Every structure is written in C-alpha cells, then in structure tokens.
Amino acid sequence: MTDTDAASVDIPPHVVEAVKRCIVESLAVEADAVELGSRLIDDLGADSLDFVDIVFMVDHELHIRARESEFNFITRLDFSSPEVMKEGFLTGPVVARLETWLPALAAVEDKTRVTPRQLFSLITVEALCIVAARRLAPPAGGAGSAAPE
C-alpha cells in the first residue's frame, strides 16, 4: 500500500462530523443514516446537484477548496476521450487515480470494467472525508493547504 491509498488517510473526527453535518443538511436525511460507508447516490439518494451542494458546503464549513481537487478531476472527465474510456469502461490509469480517494472502488472485482454510472455510485461519505482531510493536511515540507475564505 502506498501513502496515496485511500485506506492510508487519517481522517480527523472533526472532518467526519463536518462532512456528515453537510450531508444531513443538504439531503434532509437523519444523521443516523449517514455512515462512512454510505454511498451518496445509492444509499442516501443524492443526485449530481446534491453532490455539488455538499462539496460547496464542506468547502465553506472547513475553509478548504475540495472542489478544486479530486472532485474537479471526476467532474471534468471526458468520457468521449480514449485516455478516459475504452470500449465503454474507464481506462486503467483513470481507475488507478480514482482509487486514491474512492475506498469503495477496492470492492470492485474487475477494475478493467468500471463504467461511468458505477463510478458515481462509488462516492461515499468516507470519500468526501478523505478529500477534505487531504486538503486540510499540510503539504510535504510546507505549511497547511487550508485556504480560509
């Protein structure tokens, strides 16, 4: 396992609580329904607009810019590009990059057959927490990356 694996990210409790608060408020769900393994779309009923709203709320709550990180990558994937898609499935390099922050991707049996629809269903509460925790962590050898608003 490398230090970029999703499983190696230490998520501070205040990040988990902030992300959960944002999800509860945005989706109007009970707090007990929001667990780290909950999938935003499949389990909590989020849609793409809800996802964007949650990311903006997390940015504001934690004074970070998560929307300029991994989320920017996923929302800007060009599914018509041969670098992104091959025969209807995400390419190996794309899947490898996504694995660094999508823990649910580890459970996918055949990573050579991940579809765009499947990709979005893999976004969990934990994935949001991982991205937020990474944005709050100081870069190697430097000061913190949090950007106060």
Mean pLDDT: 86
Number of helices: 6
What string, H for helix and E for strand, traces the elements in order?
A: HHHEEHHH
What is the helical fraction, as a range of percent? 40-55%
For the biggest sheet, the summary is:
2 strands, antiparallel
Q: What fraction of residues sit in β-strands?
A: under 5%
State the low-pLDDT regions, or none.
144-149
Oligomer: single chain
Terminal-residue CA separation: 35 Å
From the spread of the alpha carbons, the general shape counts as: globular
Major β-sheet strand ordering: 1-2
Radius of gyration: 15 Å
Q: Give me the count of strands.
A: 2
Structural category is mainly alpha
Give a concise summary.
The protein has helices at 13-27, 48-62, 70-75, 92-99, 116-121, 125-136, and strands at 85-86, 89-90. By secondary structure, it is mainly α. It has a two-stranded antiparallel sheet.
What does this protein structure show overall?
Helices cover 42% and strands 3% of the residues. The chain has 149 residues and is mostly helical. A two-stranded antiparallel ribbon has the order 1-2. Strand 1 (85-86) and strand 2 form a beta hairpin. Helix 1 packs across helix 2. The longest helix is centred in the first third of the chain and has 15 residues, at 13-27. It starts with 12 loop residues before the first helix and ends in a 13-residue tail after the last helix. Residues 144-149 have low confidence and may be disordered.
